[in-house]
Every structure is written in structure tokens, then in C-alpha cells.
């Protein structure tokens, strides 16, 4: 005998990568077929055709009247207009309504809370690349950062995360922007860093820069996650001013687009070392200015 799914009907607002992955993760937990709504009907219909046990919603009113769990999976700037439009429909019952953005907390959902909904921000701290099957598998053990508007809303959000195998972390409303900035600094800027290094290696004559970098940067990532700045190696740690001078000269001559990022990251690394008690590297700082 199968357990009854925990939600009467789930509604997904959005048709992007996160919406697709969450729809796939949750559709089996809805008694009635999941409803999916998006501004592009062809994408909406493609999602429902792919995952099964789902149907396209014709408008937000249908989701507001039928669903006891509603996920808003749209771009950051689109959340507030969607919230306002959904609030106008006066969702029935006391549905759990979540948005999946990292930037905002639960306050942006206040118009819905005022209509009696349980509201929370639930951000999956993952990268979504457009492969929903793999992303659903990666949700097992992944962190989902929750900011709830009330204790009952937080508890309801925690149960949802557990349902798909995630691990809950909590961030206060006031710290939500800092949390998101930290994620972007780590994940987005890492992509920029790797792209710049690969371009410079290609200019230096390396046929497969990614293959050359992979073992080095994976070890550096593991060390940094394990030891923080204590995992650092290289010329800045050793105080090799002449090496840094040679780097700047070579980058200026052959890969000038990399120069601002190299200077900024080297300076930030010196700052971190000094904050941990290393002696000031005045000679290297002069070279970097």
C-alpha cells in the first residue's frame, strides 16, 4: 500500500532551470497532478510533458485556488510582481508559498502572508545547468537555506526540504543578502577565475588548459575548504616579490585582460594573510599597485 502524498496539489510558477528540477523532484508528492504556470506556454507545456503527473495551469488564479504548496521559481527581479499578482487572487486555505531565490528572504512574500499563507524563502545552494535528472539526484544531501516568516512556516519549509533529501540551513532575514553575495563570490567568480587562467594558458601554448588545471585547482579547492587561508601555497605566501613582478610583466604583455583580476586577487590574498598574523608584504604591495 502506497503512502498518500503529503500535498493535495503542488503549483510551480516558472519554467526555468530551477523550476524544472523542482517540478521533477516534487511531482510524485502531489495527490492531484502538479500545476505548472509560466509566461511562455511552450516551455510550460514541455515541462509537464516531460515529468508526467502534471498539467499546465492556465493562469495564476488556478494555482491560487487549487494548490496547498506553491513554489515561485522565477528570476529575482520577477518575484515581487508575481507575489503581488498572486496575492490579488487570494489563495485559498493556508497554503505554503515559497520562493527559491537566494537574494531575498521571506519579507518579499509579505502580501501573501497577509492573505493567510505560510511563507518562506528556500534557496537550494546548488548550480542548476539544465539537466533536471542529475540535479534532482544532487539535491540529496545538498543544503537548502531557509528563511521563514514564522515558526510554522519555517517548520513547513523544513519538512519540504527533508522530503526531497536536502539538508536545512537557516539564515536570518537581515543576513540574506550577505549570504547570497558569499555564494556568488565563491561560485560565479570562480568561473571567471578559471576562464581567465585557461585563456592565459592557451596563450602560453598549452593545448588543453582545463586538463592541466584540473588536478591543481581541485586540490586547492579541497585544501581551502578544509583549512581556509591555511591551505594557501605559492609565491605570495613565500614573499617572492620577483616572481610576482615577473607575473605582472608577462600578463601585461600577453594576457592584459587578466591583469585587473590578478592584481585584485593578489591584494586580497595579502590582506587575508596579514589578518592571520603574517608580516606585512610592503614590497609586493608596491609591485601590485
Number of strands: 8
Low-confidence stretches: none
The helix/strand class is alpha/beta
Multimerization state: single chain
Largest pleated sheet: 8 strands, mixed
User: Alpha-carbon distance between the termini?
Assistant: 70 Å
Number of helices: 13
Shape verdict: elongated
C-alpha-based Rg, rounded: 24 Å
The helix/strand order is EHEHEHEHEHEHEHEHHHHHH
Biggest sheet strand order reads 3-2-1-4-5-6-7-8
Indicate the proportion of strand residues: 5-15%
* Average pLDDT for all residues: 95
Helical fraction equals: 40-55%
Please give a structural write-up.
The protein is of the alpha/beta class and 289 residues long. It contains 13 helices and 8 strands. An 8-stranded mixed beta sheet has the order 3-2-1-4-5-6-7-8, sandwiched between helices. Strand 5, helix 5 (110-113) and strand 6 (118-124) form a beta-alpha-beta unit.
Which descriptors would you attach to this protein?
289 residues, 8-stranded mixed sheet
How are the SSEs ordered, and which strands pair?
Elements: E1 10-13, H1 17-26, E2 34-37, H2 41-51, E3 54-56, H3 60-66, E4 69-72, H4 79-88, E5 96-99, H5 110-113, E6 118-124, H6 132-139, E7 143-148, H7 151-163, E8 167-170, H8 176-203, H9 209-227, H10 235-238, H11 241-254, H12 259-275, H13 282-288
Parallel strand pairs: 1-2, 1-4, 2-3, 4-5, 5-6, 7-8
Antiparallel strand pairs: 6-7
Helix pairs in contact: 1-6, 11-13
Amino acid at each position: 500500500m502506497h503512502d498518500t502524498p503529503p500535498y493535495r496539489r503542488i503549483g510551480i510558477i516558472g519554467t526555468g532551470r530551477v523550476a524544472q528540477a523542482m517540478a521533477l523532484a516534487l511531482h510524485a508528492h502531489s495527490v492531484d497532478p502538479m500545476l505548472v504556470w509560466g509566461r511562455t506556454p511552450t516551455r510550460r507545456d514541455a515541462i509537464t510533458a516531460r515529468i508526467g503527473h502534471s498539467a499546465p495551469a492556465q493562469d495564476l488564479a488556478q494555482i491560487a485556488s487549487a494548490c496547498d504548496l506553491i513554489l515561485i521559481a522565477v528570476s529575482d527581479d520577477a518575484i515581487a510582481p508575481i507575489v503581488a499578482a498572486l496575492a490579488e487572487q487570494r489563495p485559498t486555505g493556508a497554503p505554503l508559498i515559497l520562493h527559491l531565490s537566494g537574494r531575498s528572504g521571506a519579507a518579499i512574500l509579505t502580501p501573501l502572508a497577509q492573505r493567510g499563507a505560510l511563507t518562506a524563502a528556500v534557496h537550494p545552494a546548488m548550480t542548476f545547468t539544465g539537466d533536471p535528472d542529475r540535479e534532482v539526484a544532487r539535491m540529496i544531501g545538498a543544503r537548502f537555506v531557509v528563511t521563514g516568516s514564522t515558526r510554522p512556516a519555517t517548520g513547513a519549509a523544513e519538512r519540504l526540504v527533508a522530503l526531497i533529501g536536502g539538508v536545512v540551513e537557516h539564515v536570518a532575514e537581515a543576513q540574506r543578502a550577505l549570504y547570497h553575495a558569499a555564494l556568488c563570490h565563491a561560485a560565479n567568480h570562480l568561473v571567471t577565475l578559471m576562464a581567465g587562467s585557461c585563456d592565459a594558458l592557451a596563450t602560453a601554448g598549452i593545448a588543453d588548459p582545463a586538463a592541466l588545471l584540473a588536478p591543481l585547482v581541485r586540490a586547492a579547492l579541497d585544501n581551502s575548504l578544509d583549512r581556509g587561508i591555511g591551505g594557501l601555497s605559492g609565491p605570495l605566501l613565500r614573499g617572492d616579490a620577483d616572481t610576482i613582478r615577473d607575473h605582472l610583466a608577462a600578463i601585461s604583455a600577453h594576457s592584459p585582460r587578466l591583469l585587473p583580476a590578478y592584481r585584485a586577487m593578489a591584494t586580497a590574498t595579502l590582506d587575508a594573510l596579514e589578518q592571520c598574523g603574517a608580516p606585512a608584504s610592503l614590497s609586493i604591495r608596491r609591485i601590485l599597485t
